[in-house]
Specification:
alpha/beta; Nucleotidyltransferase, domain 5; five-stranded mixed β-sheet
Length: about 140
């Protein structure tokens, strides 16, 4: 089996999480500058077999698209052109940032570590991936 890679897209940084090869465990991988995201993904899929990209879908409480969707859709179009052989699925990402922050608190991280937005993005990507795995 191949890995599933989840992307919590942001305009400045993007959190990335992956499954193990059996697609049982979701783990945070890293946070990448969004400008470097496509080159990072291309390099990653050379080293690791990836069968699916999951991309967070930010929604409002009334189920309409969030404003950040305006930035995500062009990225998805570019990803489809640059890496056409890996399918893309969307996953509702409502509350993942809040849940990521709460996870940091619950795990005992000190206040100065909780200010690390890159870590929040990576944890958010992991939560997106976990929710997908639970739904399978």
């Amino acid at each position: 089996m191949a890995r599933i890679l989840a992307i919590d897209y942001g305009t400045k940084r993007t959190g990335i999480a992956v499954t193990d090869e059996l697609q049982i465990i979701a783990s945070g991988l890293t946070t990448v500058s969004t400008k470097e995201l496509i080159p990072f993904l291309k390099a990653y899929i050379i080293k690791e077999k990836v069968e699916l990209f999951l991309i967070g879908e930010p929604k409002q409480m009334d189920n309409t698209a969030s404003e950040s969707e305006l930035y995500i859709l062009p990225f998805i179009d570019k990803l489809k052109k640059e890496i056409p052989n890996i399918p893309i699925e969307r996953v509702d990402e409502r509350f993942t940032s809040k849940m990521a922050f709460q996870t940091m608190i619950d795990s005992g991280l000190k206040k100065n570590k909780r200010k690390n937005k890159a870590l929040v993005d990576e944890i958010s990507a992991t939560l997106i991936l976990q929710s997908y795995l639970y739904s399978k």
